[in-house]
Amino acid sequence: MSPLPPPAAQRPSLPARLFKSVAAIEPYEARAVVLSMLYFFCLFGSYSVVKPVRDAMGTVYGMKHLQELFTATFLASLVFAPLYSGLASRLRLSTFLPWVYGFIAVSVLGFFALFRGIGDPQQLHWVAAAFYVWVSTFNMLIISVFWSFMADIFSRTQAKRLFGFVAAGGTVGGIVGPLIATLAGKSVGNNGLMCISAAGFIMTALLVRLLAAEKARLAAAGAEAQHTTLDRKLAGGLFDGFLLLARSPYLLLLALFLLLMTWISTIVYFQLGDLITKAFASPDERRRAYAAIELAVNSLAVVLQLFGTGRLIRRFGVGTGLLVNPVIMVIAFLAVLFSPVLLVLGGIQIVRRVAEYAVAKPTREMLFTVVDQQSKYKAKNVIDTVVYRFGDLSSSWVSHAVLPFGVAGLAIFGVIVAVIWFPVAVLLGRRYEHLRSGELIGAASRPVDGAGA
Questions:
Q1: Angstrom distances, CA of residue 346 to CA of 133, 292, 343, 424
Q2: Dist. CA 220–CA 1, nearest whole Å
Q3: How many other CB atoms are there within 10 angstroms of residue 350's CB atom?
Q4: CA 452 to CA 254: how far, in whole Å?
Q5: How far is 422 from 412, CA to CA, in rounded Å?
Q6: pLDDT tens sequence across 349-387
Q7: Is 251:444 a contact under the CB 8 Å cutoff?
Q8: Which contiguous run of DSSP H or E holds residue 360?
Q9: Side-chain half-sphere exposure of 417, counting CA atoms within 13 A
Q10: What pLDDT score was predicted for residue 183?
């Protein structure tokens, strides 16, 4: 493999100069950033195509039983997290990472074959439930693998500049995917959408291989990047992710931060669902209300990701990025408490999710740039799947219990959660800065076998 020329010796092209002027992307980073954006675009677009099929299968199983599907999804996450860790310990990362997406493509095609062959309504009932649980399980896994890979390519200083720009690829995929599902869904049906999604995941696997080669070129050139290798197996066994999480105060803070963020999201989801149900009588009107919010969120988020996130984090730091959403939500829930109307809550949902997608999410992923390679892939997977799904499950039950007290009752509960979230964000930001400065390197998350990244 021919090494990449040193950054100073490269002659930047016009697109590279444009990238640098708009988003502070250095010429030697441009190829990796573009491949990363395409990777996230195909990944999230493929999931967004199959997501409406998943939701439709949830209605086949029965909306009154969605709590059962949430529970099954959490249990499935508990099973797949150690399987993922075990495979990462037995296969080279350069082989394992593309096959994560290849396996997802094969599984979607497997369900396609099952749905085509089913004639018995009772069988359809159970296959629909299995499909809902599987898609709800792998959607967090595939995104977790993506950000693990990003944290294994770009250094902590690069992440501040580039992660917002990279995240925009996923946001655009989140716009294009539903458009494909809407425009093509009538002609190809749910089964056709599953085939389109599978093809997208195969394309994602190919992009992972290209990006792995780009990572190797960056490392060979001595360019600013994570100088780890994918030509290795991660040591350890099935439960390393859980062990690494339990042993690291830093990773435990990360898990708590995500858990509280998940609780906040679910509280707002229940509040919004209650107000939309009361405001609109027909399912079509409710769908249009949700769609309007989604369009506003994705449109605003992609602009901020492309032109604002990197500048914001470089100017104010990662700690400030972590605090944005807790501060917004304390103010937001107080506003809902005094004015629990759809217009207020809809606006809050837009602001919250734009801040989450454009600031909180990229910032949270930057936190993994200072841990070892085992923690990037194994502990992060546990946090992003098991902890996230536990947050979904627990907060849905609590929100369901509080909802009879009205939207104002949920707002009071939300204020309490957001107030707890604030000091967790502060502590996490400080811990990151200590790791970044090298004061605690090796103490935060040591690999099980003692090997470094």
A1: 28, 10, 5, 27
A2: 9
A3: 19
A4: 21
A5: 16
A6: 888 888 888 888 889 899 998 898 889 999 999 999 999
A7: yes
A8: none
A9: 28
A10: 81
User: Tokens representing 355?
Assistant: 């801040």
Structure tokens belonging to residue 2 = 């021919």
Contact 174, 298 (CB under 8 A): yes
Whether 234 contacts 378, CB under 8 Å? yes
The CA angle 287-348-160, to the nearest 5 degrees, is 110
Instruction: State pTM to two decimals.
Output: 0.82
Token pair in block for residue 101: 């997406």
* Residues whose CB falls within 8 Å of the CB of residue 200, separated by 6 or more in sequence, listed in order: 42, 43, 45, 46, 49
**CA 434, 435, 438, 441 torsion-angle sign:** positive
| Token pair for 188 | 């190809």
32 contacts 214 by C-beta, under 8 angstroms: yes
- Residue from 411, 404, 369 nearest 156 by CA: 369
Q: Which positions ≥6 away from 193 have C-beta within 8 Å?
A: 49, 50, 52, 53, 180, 181, 184, 185
| 181-190: Cβ within 8 A, 24+ apart | 181/48, 181/49, 181/51, 181/52, 181/53, 185/52, 190/53, 190/56, 190/115
Burial (Cβ within 10 Å: 0-12, 13-18, ≥19) of residue 79: exposed
Q: Are 4 and 30 in contact (CB under 8 A)?
A: no
| Per-residue pLDDT tens digits for 406-438 | 767 777 888 888 889 989 999 999 999 888 776
User: How confident is residue 8, by pLDDT bands cut at 50, 70 and 90?
Assistant: very low
Q: In the chain, how many H helices and how many E strands?
A: 17, 0
Tell me the one-letter amino acid at 144: S
